[in-house]
């Protein structure tokens, strides 16, 4: 859908904002497939130790945020002090920072995993979206994985 809107924006005035948006794709995987299970187990094994403190921090901050929201729900909006608003804002920022760290760790794992790249490239190939250098890299990776 987004790709089509970006293509149409070239021809219509005032639709340039679609051209600035990144391409996004949704990939649906069969989570019962043995290969997908293997990738998930491997990801869990390799990232569990580094993710454990981050996930604990996220859980703690989310609990703190829930308590802050619960306290604020008891008050009228004009009764909420600036300190309470800042506290909520800082807690939300801490949660987003920790989630960014989590995503960075998972992305780092995925960048170094050829099977993840292969699964993504297979999905792109199935939809006719794998071309040029990406197709060449896919073929070379396929040959290397077979050896």
UniProtKB/TrEMBL annotation:
UniProt keywords, alphabetically: Stress response
UniProt-annotated stretches for the region Disordered: 71-96
Protein name: Heat shock protein HtpG
Organism from which the protein derives: human gut metagenome
